[in-house]
Amino acid sequence: MSEPMLKIENLHASVEESEILRGVDLAVNAGEIHAIMGPNGSGKSTLASILAGRDDYEVTEGRVTYKGQDLLALEPEERAHEGVFLAFQYPVEIPGVNNIYLLKAALNAKRAHQGLDEVDTVDFLTSVKEKMKLMGMDESFLNRAVNEGFSGGEKKRNEIFQMMVLEPELALLDETDSGLDIDALKLVAQGVNQMRSPDRAIVIVTHYQRLLDYIEPDRVHVLAQGRVVKSGDKMLAHELEDKGYDWLRQEEATEA
Amino acid sequence: MSTVDPIAERLIERLGGERPGDSVDWIAALRSRAAERLAALGLPHTKIEDWKYTSLKPITKRDFARPDAASATADAGAVEALRIPGLETHRLVFVNGHFAAALSDRDLGAQGLTVKSLAAAFAEDPEALRDRFAALAPIDFSGFTALNTAYADDGAVIRVAPKTQVERPIELVFLSTPQGQPVMAQPRVILDAGHHSEVTLIEHFVGLDDAANLTNAVTELKIDVGAQVTHYRLQRESRKGFHIASIHAEQAENSRYASHNVQIGGQLSRTDINTALNAEGADTLFNGIYLLNGRQHSDTHTRINHLAPHTYSEESYRGILNDHARGVFNGRVYVAQNAQQIQAYQQNDNLLLSGRAEIDTKPELEIYADDVVCSHGATIGRLDDNMLFYLRSRGVDEEAARGLLLYAFAEGTVEKMGLEALRTWLEGFVIDELPQAERVREFV
Ligand SMILES: Nc1ncnc2c1ncn2[C@@H]1O[C@H](COP(=O)(O)OP(=O)(O)OP(=O)(O)O)[C@@H](O)[C@H]1O
Ligand SMILES: [Mg+2]
Q1: A52 CA: distance to closest CA in chain B (Å)
Q2: Pocket test for ligand 1, best of A18, A22, A45 (most atoms within 8 A of CB)
Q3: B88-140, pLDDT tens digit by residue?
Q4: Potential cystine with B176: which of A39, A67, A76, B211 (Cβ 3.0-4.6 Å)?
Q5: Which residues contact A185 (CB under 8 A, 6 or more apart)?
């Protein structure tokens, strides 16, 4: 079998002396969707941020291999050019920077990296508008500042919309389902399912089984106290929903 | 006899001589009073609280000459190139403080609007200016106001009749050009907006060919009941030039004054903007930005005087400072005892791009009424890490991301300006001032 697209080995990371990730192991193959669940503060967003290149964290041990290269050696923008995309748990508002400018710049930066010409403006707009429609977003969002004044749900939808435009190879979705109403949740799930492809891996961080009713994961992992403590198929998510994380702690205690 | 300040004495010696209007008694008397005040005051120095952070040594150590009217010319092509694309204006051009008729629009008036050079107004109807000249700008507001009152060579007088909506903005272009030795250009602008009139004034200061001149400008704006004056100031002196200006507005009932002030040029500049909200319903917007780099020093002092109940003011100034640049912002809001139920908001935000850039920012609230809503805030910071990371995570490289965020920060000021053509044109200048200009252009 070929190498996984993303391979995380014994990853340790800390911030200001306190260790947040304590030896994460995870492998994701192209074509798969993985879900990561786990209690608040267990390190899920930290893991996603480190993969996207945020430098607030110090990686003290371990390594991350993405498409055969050392992911941690790349700048955040280089990771984006190589196909990594993070849908933020808390997307930041950027007053004065237009959504459409950002999208076009992002896409062209990636294309330049691939040795391609800039996108044709007309084609770009047509495809962007199609994708907005799929996400139930009004076209007026294009000329608004990035996330400025967007409602919580609109911000999340905007992240998925960006993902659809940028067509990453590795998409990390950090709690994209929280704060969404039922209809928006379905739209987001639709968007993600449409992105499912043999060349693409998707990692979804979520607290709720609900999203996984719409997006069927190949693997489910539980992250607790900075480590992957259990992995399984989609049934694991159901079990967690029924029994809560206490069940895992008890199980761990009996095993020990 | 009081003592004469030695700096003032030298100025008086150099700048004296005949001027339009001298034959009119009240003008001559006013000028000599102003010269006397100048002699007593001298120019401001850092021991004066209001000038604490701005040393005028670079100005006082130079001897600026009186500009010569005969050489008040400039290359017509260069002047034409200064037009704001897509914006039709009534345009007057001044060269080193002298009105240049040949470079200005021929037909300056319109229905309900008269625009004249100060010299022409003095010659044609001096009486009409008797209660207006130096009525709003106190002679001794500073030594510079005294200096301008005594020695302004020319300027503009603008009158808008009641209920007139002036369609095209009035644009005053003040060119500063090298003329053998550094000169002192001293324009004086007087605007009267009649009741319920609407007018836009653009004061555009441009330094050509590295001119090392001093501009000392005074502008007086009388805004009558229900009138609306929108005032753009674009300060683009040369990097070797000096710029001192004071603006004095008086606002009647339900009037609105919007001041948009863009400061880019000059090695040393100081701008004072003052307004008095004299009657109920008067409303003020002070919106401004300073973009400084190299060793530029720029000082902005604003004063908003709430003198009547139910008056409103909003002030927002932003600054981007790089290299060794030094900025000063002082925003004073005064609320008189009877001025109940007023609202005053003030905000000053600064980005320092270098460890050696410096800003002194100070709100100054003096409130004697008890039923008021006032807020003020000042920030000094760097670019937001979360925003930078967000942009980079989307593939925008760090340099471009920084440029984009700076541009967006400046846009916060520019977007408040109502004239679209001017806004678009200005955005170009703003980008030019940013360290990552080339990269930002790819985005906007
Ligand atoms: N920059 C930081 N500085 C200090 N502590 C941090 C920082 N980032 C994360 N932490 C801490 O690390 C721990 C893990 O945080 P993280 O955001 O990764 O959790 P999470 O699993 O995503 O939680 P949630 O489910 O609530 O989103 C928390 O205790 C958090 O307070
Ligand atoms: Mg999280």
Answers
A1: 6
A2: A45
A3: 999 999 999 999 999 999 877 789 999 999 999 999 999 999 999 999 999 99
A4: B211
A5: A177, A210, A211, A214
For B120, how many CA atoms within 13 A lie in the half-sphere containing its CB?
Answer: 15
Q: Is the pTM of this model over 0.95?
A: no
A-chain residues near B392 (CB < 8 A): 53, 75-77, 80
| A253 band by pLDDT with thresholds 50, 70 and 90 | low
Q: Is B272 helix (H, G, I), strand (E, B) or coil?
A: strand
Question: B374 pairs with which residues across the strands?
Answer: B344
Buried b (16+ CB within 10 A) or exposed e, B26-59: ebeebbebbbbbbbebbbbbeeeeebbbbebeeb
SS3 A6: strand
Greatest pairwise CA separation for chain B in angstroms: 72
Gap between the Cα atoms of B288 and B266, Å rounded? 16
Instruction: Check: CB of residue B56 under 8 Å from CB of residue B214.
Output: no
What is the residue extent of each domain of chain A? 6-255
At the top level of CATH, which class does the domain A6-255 belong to? alpha beta
CA of B380 from ligand 1 middle (Å) equals 28
Please name the residue of chain B whose CA is at the shortest distance from the CA of residue A86: B393
Q: Are A86 and A76 in contact (CB under 8 A)?
A: no
Question: For B86, left (φ over 0), alpha (ψ -120 to 50), or beta?
Answer: left
User: Which site among B391, B416, B423, B430 would you substitute to test the A interface, given the most A Cβ atoms closer than 10 Å to its Cβ?
Assistant: B391
Nearest CA to ligand 1 atom 4: A15
Concatenated DSSP letters of B72-111: ----HHHHHTTS-TT---EEEEEETTEE-GGGS-S---BT
Both tokens assigned to B34: 């102003």
Quick one: residue B355, left, alpha or beta (phi over 0 = left, psi -120 to 50 = alpha)?
Answer: alpha
ipTM: 0.95
Question: For ligand 1, atom 22, which residue shows the shortest CA distance?
Answer: A45
Spatial CA neighbour of B236 closest among B174, B190, B323 = B174
Cβ-in-10-Å burial (0-12, 13-18, 19+) of B2 comes to exposed
Question: Looking at beta carbons, which residues of chain A come within 8 Å of B391?
Answer: 94, 97, 102
Q: Are B332 and B362 in contact (CB under 8 A)?
A: no
